[in-house]
Amino acid sequence: DIYISKKQNTAEHCDIIICVYKTEALIKKFSNLNGNISLISLNHDKYYPLPVADEQELKIEGVVKNIMSYS
Fold first, then answer.
1. Among 17, 27, 40, 70, which is most exposed with the fewest C-beta within 10 angstroms?
2. What is the mean pLDDT of residues 31-50?
């Protein structure tokens, strides 16, 4: 898959983001409900949401604008 993204350091609820959390680079759906931030896997059937306990450990690198999938 190819991800087309816009470089920015902020995200809105439900944006798909490219980020670094702790020391790991991730592509996840950003969830911010009532100030509770979590990162949701695009393959949510396999993985549980990842709660962000410390916002200082999350660095948003960009927001995904398009995904091109190849089969």
1. 70
2. 93
